[in-house]
Amino acid sequence: VVEVVIQHGAADIAALVADEIEKLLAAKPDAVLGLATGSSPLAVYDELVRRHEAGRISFARARGFMLDEYVGLPDDHPERYRNVIEREIASRVDFAPGAVQGPDGNSDDLLGACEDYEAAIAAAGGVDLQILGIGTDGHIAFNEPGSSLASRTRIKTLTSQTRTDNARFFDGDVERVPRHCLTQGLATIMSARHLVLIATGTGKAEAVHQLTEGPVSAMWPATVMQHHPHATVLVDDAAASRL
Ligand code: GLP
């Protein structure tokens, strides 16, 4: 069941998502949050920081799990997702040291790193609320078109579309965008108890149309969310323009 919420802009969407997270943490201070990178969740993170600074939200007992990570970026690379999450949210609120984890894209045993990551999420009791963005090709996390709907955390090759989309984070140079990543699988993401997907701008309109109105298909990986019991899709007017 996908609930679609249309808002006028990113700030309105951020306020609604922050409301959900504030409610969750009030009811369950040790909640497990699923954190996404990309530009879509940034306004949410800013709003969470504001509410934390206002004394409304504490993450002191919460945990965070990231969706995905590039393979092979230097540890201190600013676009390594672990560093992005640290910069955009983890270091700005009161998460305990080590409370936010991601798959280790620099492990010399990448298969083992994927298994360890699945085990860590399970040991934490699973994700209560998973924040998601969506790729223009309908990917969630780095589950590109053709991904198995039953997939778990694994190594994936990025499509040239996604590498082109993400070149803006690498000085506009697609050659600098890594070719491989580790990503939670679609089944991993589907295990979260509440999925909250944010999409803004006309570039996402087709993906949002497929996600909400298209047939469930590995060619538009986000359509798997139609089988989730509690999925919320928050879009602005532009991203809703094909609905
Ligand atoms: C990347 C990330 C995804 C994200 C997507 C959309 O490929 N791996 O998790 O949802 O981009 O990014 P943006 O929100 O910047 O449009």
TrEMBL record:
Sample GO molecular function, one term: glucosamine-6-phosphate deaminase activity
Q: Which residue ranges does the record assign to the Glucosamine/galactosamine-6-phosphate isomerase domain?
A: 10-228
Identify the metabolic or biological route this protein is part of: Amino-sugar metabolism; N-acetylneuraminate degradation; D-fructose 6-phosphate from N-acetylneuraminate: step 5/5
> Where is the site described as Part of the allosteric site found in this chain?
S147, R154, K156, T157
Q: Which residues form the active site?
A: D68, D137, H139, E144
The protein's job, in short, is: Catalyzes the reversible isomerization-deamination of glucosamine 6-phosphate (GlcN6P) to form fructose 6-phosphate (Fru6P) and ammonium ion.
State the name under which the record lists this protein.
Glucosamine-6-phosphate deaminase
One GO biological process this protein is involved in is: N-acetylneuraminate catabolic process
Keywords for this entry? Allosteric enzyme, Carbohydrate metabolism, Hydrolase
Report the EC code(s) recorded for this entry: 3.5.99.6
Family statement: Belongs to the glucosamine/galactosamine-6-phosphate isomerase family. NagB subfamily.
List the catalytic activities from the record: alpha-D-glucosamine 6-phosphate + H2O = beta-D-fructose 6-phosphate + NH4(+)
How would you summarize its activity regulation? Answer: Allosterically activated by N-acetylglucosamine 6-phosphate (GlcNAc6P).
Mind naming one GO cellular-component term on file for this protein? cytoplasm
